[in-house]
Design brief:
Blueprint (H helix, E strand, L loop, with lengths): L2 E4 L2 E4 L3 H12 L4 E4 L16 E3 L7 H11 L6 H16 L8 E4 L2 E4 L8 H14 L2 E3 L2 E9 L2 E9 L4 E6 L2 E4 L20 H9 L3 E2 L4 E8 L12 H4 L2 E3 L6 H4 L7 H4 L1 H13 L8 E4 L1 H5 L6 E2 L2 E2 H7 L7 E10 L2 E2 L12 E3 L16 H21 L12 H11 L7 H15 L6 H17 L9 H25 L21 E8 L2 E8 L6
Parallel strand pairs: 1-10, 2-3, 2-11, 3-7, 11-20
Antiparallel strand pairs: 4-6, 5-6, 8-9, 9-10, 12-19, 12-21, 13-18, 14-15, 15-18, 16-17, 21-22
Helix pairs in contact: 1-4, 1-12, 2-3, 3-12, 5-16, 14-15, 14-16, 15-16
Amino acid sequence: MALRFTSDILIIGTGGAGLRAAVEAHEKGAHVLLVSKAPAGYNNCTIVAGSGYLAAVGGMTPGEHRERTLGVGKGVNDPKLVDVLTEEGGGRVLELEKYGLVVNVRRGGISVGDEDTRLGQGITLPMVDYLRKLGVEFVENTIVTRLLKKEGRVVGAVGYHGDEKQPVVYQCKAVILATGGAGALYKRTDCPLRTTGDGYSLAYHAGARLRDMEFVQFFPLALAEPGAPPLLVDGPVIEEGKIMNVLGEDIPEKHNVTERPYIARSRDLLSRAMMLEIVKGEGVDGAVLVDGREVVRRSKPGDSFGMGSYEFFVNRLQAHERPFRVAPLTHFTMGGVVANTWGETDVEGLFAAGEVVGGVHGANRHGGNALTDVTVFGARAAARAAEYAEKVSHEEVEELVEEDVKRYEGLARRETGYTPRSMMGVLRETMWEKAGVIRDSEMLVEAFEKIQDLRDSTRRLMVLPGRQMISALEIPMALDAAEMIVRAAMMRRESRGAHYRLDHPEEDPAWVKTVIISKKDSAMQLTTVPIGEAFE
């Protein structure tokens, strides 16, 4: 038995891109269905975001926004995508108020929510509520494992429902991938643990190309105190305090990290500098130190230091009396599916928006651009998908899913072997140690070999029907995404933005180009194209 759903447009993901796409598609008259691995609006990168959007409002011009985006992206952004982001961003972020969001305008962008709003809950939860009131349907706690094609075009998808413990078959005219990134492939991350790169794998096996997968952004300043949550640290405690090694040396000064604010403009260089100190043995248990004692002492209750409150920093960390530990963690994936400015991919009927798409941010993302990205391109992808869906008919998909159903049944019958949690733990450790902030040829080869070992081990996965099945079905897709990151990092023999290689530590002008990944027969193929020509 299998659950069956029919829609004009199937949207995979209920973060910012998926929700904004759903609003647009519904307004265009399309019958929309949203599917997510978690309850709608939860367990995605938007809900844990800081709720700040960078855009040309409050006195900042599109030209200034464009210049900042390209500068931080280190010259490898797709200029067509950046032009659309910066020209449309201002209008798109302001219209969010129509969908129930509390929009606070400032120079150069907006923030969303009131004083009591926790992170990105002021984005996803009001939009889910808005869509439910419109009658838009959600299918939750469900994983999509394959896109279905007939005569070269996407006509549906197949997956597994964790609550119902059954396969799910989707019949549709178009699919919008809004699955987010792959930050949870790494041991230290602030991304929800369901962000394991599903969309990259789905697109790849459907025949779409991917780009820039070597560029994984690490947020440099996250708490690394024993027993404390990895809260992101920002504000005066960072900008006026001192980020230092165990010798007391100022790390930004030592490594010539000058662009401020650090968290907006220097995420790549500061992460790199901190990890170099740690690798040299001048850190503290895999971390460096922030001396913000003077800043904390002159602060007052109610002040915040990024994600941490004054009370937390004083009572829990005693940051007014001693330095505290910070270390980078995985935060965002710049690479992704090759798509044009309307979210169209190489595959007919397949559209994509948000973090799953590559090219907008180049080698490093400017702070605030992620939420603007999902808003602008979520709307555009949906507008074009709705236009496309009016021109095509539904196709029968039942005969396309027999092998998938058998695979799910086979997994559910295994009573011995590795658990999904243990296997994902090995992958996350491998990616952090071998393909993280600092890389070299030897590390990357070791990571690649371990990924292949894990592929072999998936034949011995032990799974119970239900939610654990979702975790098991994530594994092969996570391995695909991990291999893409590692293979692209092997190919790019230079250091640029968030990609730093010890054996090629300088930027090389010859590498102002895009690494493209595609599937040829059953093999992963890598090539390069000039900047801006990925979708020619």
